[in-house]
């Protein structure tokens, strides 16, 4: 009977002795239980599709780094990430050619002919100002030029070429008639009332002034005599001569 009581007493006191004899084992068991408790929420969050903080790898992320888009959960984790963040790559500069090719204009460039006695009109600022002052001046000059050209027959009155063989021409127009018609058109335009007549009068006076100025510098009179055989030059000479009378 005494032996049975002693065995029971030893059985009750042995667990207490084991706990008191191994305190480190008890501490490790407590740490393992705590880590398991912390790991369980992260595993549950990952299973639910929640993005975990890329710094502490424990809490759910709330923000993203604007440079590398790494998720983080708090200001503290963001500070740690900034300290360890890799530098941004330097932008690559595109090397420019040392001798860039000049731009080629699709529109033809009209060069001033030094032998042209009327080249002063091409770059005259006074003439350009006159066209801006009188917007209808361009059309008036086109009408005067049209008066020097042969009249056009209506399409329904034209005779086929095959039927004109052997038939003498009955046209009353020639070059002299065209010059005469141009003079009359110019005279009528100068005598017109209002801005129409005023614009033509200022235009003819300016043309005469510019040509006379070029005559004094470049001896345009000699060049005009040499080019008298050309039809266009002859037309302009005659029109200008009519205005000087």
UniProtKB/TrEMBL annotation:
For bias type Polar residues, the affected ranges are: 28-43
The annotated regions of Basic and acidic residues compositional bias extend over 11-22
Q: Does the keyword Membrane apply?
A: no
- Which terms are listed as keywords in the entry? Metal-binding, Zinc, Zinc-finger
Q: Where is this region: Disordered?
A: 1-43, 88-111
> From the Swiss-Prot or TrEMBL record, what is one GO molecular function term?
zinc ion binding
* Zinc keyword on record: yes
The protein's name is Zinc finger, HIT-type
Q: Which organism is it from?
A: Metarhizium anisopliae (strain ARSEF 549)
């Amino acid at each position: 009977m005494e032996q049975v009581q002693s065995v029971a007493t030893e059985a009750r006191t042995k667990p207490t002795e084991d706990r008191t004899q191994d305190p480190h084992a008890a501490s490790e068991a407590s740490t393992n239980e705590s880590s398991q408790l912390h790991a369980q929420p992260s595993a549950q969050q990952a299973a639910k599709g929640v993005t975990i903080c890329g710094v502490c790898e424990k809490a759910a992320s709330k923000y993203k780094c604007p440079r590398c888009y790494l998720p983080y959960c708090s200001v503290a984790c963001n500070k740690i990430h900034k300290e360890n963040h890799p530098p941004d790559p330097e932008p690559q500069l595109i090397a420019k050619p040392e001798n860039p090719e000049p731009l080629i204009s699709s529109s033809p460039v009209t060069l001033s002919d030094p032998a042209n006695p009327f080249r002063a009109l091409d770059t005259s600022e006074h003439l350009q100002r006159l066209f801006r002052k009188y917007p209808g001046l361009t059309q008036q000059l086109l009408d005067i030029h049209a008066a020097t050209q042969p009249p056009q027959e209506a399409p329904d009155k034209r005779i086929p070429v095959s039927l004109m063989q052997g038939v003498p021409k009955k046209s009353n127009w020639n070059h002299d008639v065209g010059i005469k018609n141009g003079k009359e058109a110019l005279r009528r335009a100068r005598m017109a009332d209002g801005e129409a007549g005023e614009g033509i009068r200022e235009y003819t006076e300016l043309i005469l002034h510019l040509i006379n100025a070029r005559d004094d510098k470049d001896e345009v009179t000699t060049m005009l005599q040499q080019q008298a055989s050309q039809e266009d030059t002859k037309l302009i000479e005659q029109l200008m001569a009519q205005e000087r009378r």
